[in-house]
Design a protein that fits this description.
Elements lengths: L4 E7 L5 E6 L6 H23 L11 H25 L4 H5 L2 H5 L1
Antiparallel strand pairs: 1-2
Length: 104
């Protein structure tokens, strides 16, 4: 078993301690924070494509049809992301108004 480095991230309300573990032994707290920000951005992306464009709701069996569904869902998410970036709105705001669907 290879050695690991462990960071204490925080203490939860029930008293449990939250850790961050890595096999990169020279990692310091600054690099850990950098990687934590990157991993959180990836988590937000996955939540967005699941929650807002329904990428996981594919009921198709054929591989090509599944790829088409995922590709179109990602395209829709990129349009949503671009619209939100240009207008400064959150993901929720355009979906609440019917004008977003007319613009896309």
């Amino acid at each position: 078993m290879s050695p690991i480095r462990r960071f204490v991230v925080g203490v939860l309300t029930d008293g449990d301690i939250e850790f961050w573990a890595t096999n990169h032994l020279k990692m310091n707290e600054l690099f850990r924070l950098k990687y934590a920000e990157i991993s959180w951005a990836i988590e937000e992306y996955h939540r967005g494509i699941k929650q807002f464009v329904g990428v996981e709701r594919c009921m198709l069996r054929q591989a090509k049809a599944q790829r088409n569904h995922i590709g179109l869902a990602l395209r829709a998410f990129l349009r949503l992301e671009r619209y939100c970036f240009e207008t400064g709105l959150s993901w929720f705001a355009p979906l609440e108004s019917s004008c977003f669907f007319a613009l896309s």
